Amino acid sequence: MASSSSLPLHLCHGNKLTTFFNRSHAILHSIAIAFLIHYRVSLFFQDHKTRTTPIVPLVFVFASELLLSFIWFLGRAYIWSPVYRTVFPERLPNDEELPAIDVFICTTDPNKEPTIGVMNTLLSAMALDYPPDKLRVYLSDDGGYAITLHAMREARRFARFWLPFCRRFDIETRCPEVYFSRTEDYRPNSKNSDFIDEMQKTKEQYELFKERVRRGGEECKFKDKGVHSASNHPSCIEVIQEYSKEGLVEDQIIEMPLLVYVSREKITCHFHHFKAGAVNALLRVSAVLSNSPYILMLDCDMYCNDPTSARQAMCLHFDPQMSPSLAFVQFPQAFHDISQNDIYDSEVRSAYTIAWPGLDGLKGPVLSGTNFYIKREALCCHSIKKDIELRELKDSFGPSNEFIESLRRDYKKPNVNDDGEVSNMLLEEAKVLTSCSYEDHTKWGKEAIAEDYLTGFVMQCKGWTSAYVAPSSTTRPQFLGTSTTNLNDLLTQGIRWGSGLVDVAISRHSPLLYGPPRTSFLHSMGYAELSLFPLLYCIPLWCFATIPSLCLLNGIPLYPEVSDPYFSVFLFIFLSALSKHLHEVLITGRPIRKWINEQRIWMIKSVTCHTYGSLDAILKKFRLREASFLTTNKVADDEQIKLYREGKFDFRASAIFVEPLVTVMLVNLASVAGGVFRMMFMGGDWKKMLGQVLLSVYIIVMNYVVIEGMVMRKDKGRIPLHVSVGEDNTKDMEHEFCERVQSRERSSDTTPPTTVAVATASSFIRLAKAINVRFGPKMPLKTMAITTIVANFRSTIFIYQERTAS
Ligand SMILES: O=c1ccn([C@@H]2O[C@H](COP(=O)(O)OP(=O)(O)O[C@H]3O[C@H](CO)[C@@H](O)[C@H](O)[C@H]3O)[C@@H](O)[C@H]2O)c(=O)[nH]1
Ligand SMILES: [Mn+2]
């Protein structure tokens, strides 16, 4: 592939100064950690008679310190040699030389993913600045809803107005909803009357389109109600064709991408692998229909915000040095609904500004589920050589001859005639390819061929590389989606991610074990950080949130005395970690407030979704739990948006999320109060306890919003006095559990504990209930085991309290 000029298509640069600073900091911090380890280890070797602290809390705290240090160490991979890329799409060769691209869009549930939104994504992809005969857009509808198919036909009809309009006036915003909802910025030359006319006309057509979808939606609802079920339906594949020529000049030919609706077969009892399964089905269908060498993957809410993204990606795919091994070009996930304050860190800043550029400097970023241009070859058939046996291929890819043929052949044009008609034979084949049983006894089901993080990792272990292109300060984000901007959705999504990542961490593909011979150690470290962070944050953070404070309450010191030189080691590590984070936030151009928000949400996530996610993964490993995929809600709730914009936490979240927060807060508040009381009136030694006081105070100050939600706020988003649980089927379980706890409480012979201890204990019960609710309905026995452990933890505290008192 020849470039039209000798100028490079892209540049790749690092930042020497920042890298030098980061590496120096890493070394300094490591030395401090070495001192810490030395201090702790020597404590263990001390004569147990002179050691004032009991061994159990010490072991927990030391283990937590080690875990946090370890995950910090893994994260150094990101700062080691990050790179940033600039692309020059204008230097690409002529359009004739550009390769074809299949665009995959996945949707599943019109109730959570409004159809108009999905169609906007579709239209924005159709309107990409790329030769239309080289774009083929596939929409996978996992629910198989008639409304989606209907809307797609309407979208094609509207595209006859939208596409020419965008091309003629070189419109940058090619998502119609966004374009028409803007008041200013009707570029390019708003004064041009021709433009105004066209714009008005297109706008009218857009309104008409929405109206038709809405009306059709009602009819479809009726239809869908009858025989249809989202988890049980036959496959349906349709190449969307010309609707009618109404409203158009006779021989007006508008070049349009091929548009295909795909709904794979679903049978209730057949496991369908969620999005990964949908993508696999798309891979097969598109192989027999168009077989484009490149694929763009999009979530249904991720619209193309910069029409040049395809050309940007080609700048890297055309680079003769990178191209042979380059599997995919990843663009960041950016969101259109992020507020100034962003209390939940919905933009996931650290991933897209630190981790991805960091990995890009090693061997390439993680496959992020959406917004990437990938080589088809890298996804399924890189190992195909001409002499491979047909039988072998069928064992891997299933019985379809048509599909296997596609592995060896380059399609110059889609297997569709000019009127958009496909032969019946091919449609039948496509149906076979999307049937539930097609994957049986093949590699499709076993090797999760399309499962973002793992797919990317395995690919890179096979020698493929990837590249990351973030928008510069002067260019637009390439894609924009809907983020999770309320606590419940955020943490629910967090459970799924945590569970998926830890899944990999405890599998045979665990990055540190599977990676090193196949990919560099640094690169494996980066991958390991990503897969382990939910697990390696939740354990230490639970420990730090409870053990030091409970020890403070009981007058047990865990950290060196203020006068001890080792105290400064601890202080240094604490401050060094915080200031490094602050530095990172500032160099990525965010305000200090962002740092506070990230610290807070890090703690909140660790004790909630990371905990549940890790638990989920571990239980799945032992087959005690089934995989699940709760689709993220993309419907905006005004009340929620209002709270998010005002920067107020929305605690109307499931009890399983709110309970742990309340627990941790109560424990720490009680401990600081009790600890200070002890020091002032009971002759405690403040010098020994200062570390713990500081830690608890830090937790309380950072999570002040929880206290505010508990006692100060009066709006709907506050934490209700009774965090009631809405799930009916868990009610009985919960009731039974409460009974048991209460009867045990009644029969216990302990003397009434202090009010502080009651508060602590009762919040542990609430926590136990929360865990019970999450894991209850599916596995009563195991849940009981877990809850009993937690409840016993509570009794342990009681006993502990009594012992130390006497
Ligand atoms: O059974 C399913 C479930 C989901 N989806 C689609 O998968 C996409 C992602 O689902 P969403 O609920 O939006 O999840 P998010 O957490 O927002 O998505 C992030 O996390 C996913 C992995 O958990 C990645 O696959 C996504 O690309 C990434 O954006 C959506 O288009 C869905 O329609 C399906 O096609 N079939
Ligand atoms: Mn999403």
UniProtKB/TrEMBL annotation:
<dbReference type="InterPro" id="IPR005150">
    <property type="entry name" value="Cellulose_synth"/>
</dbReference>
<dbReference type="InterPro" id="IPR029044">
    <property type="entry name" value="Nucleotide-diphossugar_trans"/>
</dbReference>
<feature type="transmembrane region" description="Helical">
    <location>
        <begin position="689"/>
        <end position="707"/>
    </location>
</feature>
<keyword id="KW-0328">Glycosyltransferase</keyword>
<keyword id="KW-1133">Transmembrane helix</keyword>
<keyword id="KW-0961">Cell wall biogenesis/degradation</keyword>
<keyword id="KW-0808">Transferase</keyword>
<dbReference type="Pfam" id="PF03552">
    <property type="entry name" value="Cellulose_synt"/>
</dbReference>
<feature type="transmembrane region" description="Helical">
    <location>
        <begin position="55"/>
        <end position="75"/>
    </location>
</feature>
<keyword id="KW-0812">Transmembrane</keyword>
<protein>
    <submittedName>
        <fullName>Uncharacterized protein</fullName>
    </submittedName>
</protein>
<feature type="transmembrane region" description="Helical">
    <location>
        <begin position="655"/>
        <end position="677"/>
    </location>
</feature>
<feature type="transmembrane region" description="Helical">
    <location>
        <begin position="26"/>
        <end position="43"/>
    </location>
</feature>
<keyword id="KW-0472">Membrane</keyword>
